[in-house]
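This entry is listed as follows:

___
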Amino acid sequence: MAGAAAAHAVTSNGAVTAGIGLGAQAAAIAGVQYWERQVHQAEQDSIAATAGDVPVGGVGVWRISHRIPIEADQHGELTVTRIIAPDVPAGDAPGFLCKEIIFSVDTVQHHQPNRDFYTADVCRDGTRWKWASAEPATERWGALQ
């Protein structure tokens, strides 16, 4: 609306005013979506980093405090269910290592603890672990992974 109001101050052409207003709205939506992707990536990086230190069958605790409070800070637990490694002789795929994980997102709803579970894959990228899943996260993060 602010973009439309500013455009109306410059021109009395309704089509131009509407176009500028819609353009400003699209830019605002794109900006929010950009920051949502940054928040989701930070959550995914926190989960992946925790999973990197957890052995198969072990349990780790992950936590993220967002720099930009678009969404609430999150936390939960995770376990590594298996190692995913290429079936090739040693040395043919140096450094290629992934883990399948199950993680929880712990919240409180109506004064009762609530725990939702998700699955994901994480892979080592040099010295750090990164998110490697797409579809299992769709329910959790929507289309804006």
Notes: Residues 2-141 form one domain. Strands lie at 59-64, 74-84, 98-109, 112-125, 128-131. Residues 14-52 form the longest helix (39 residues).
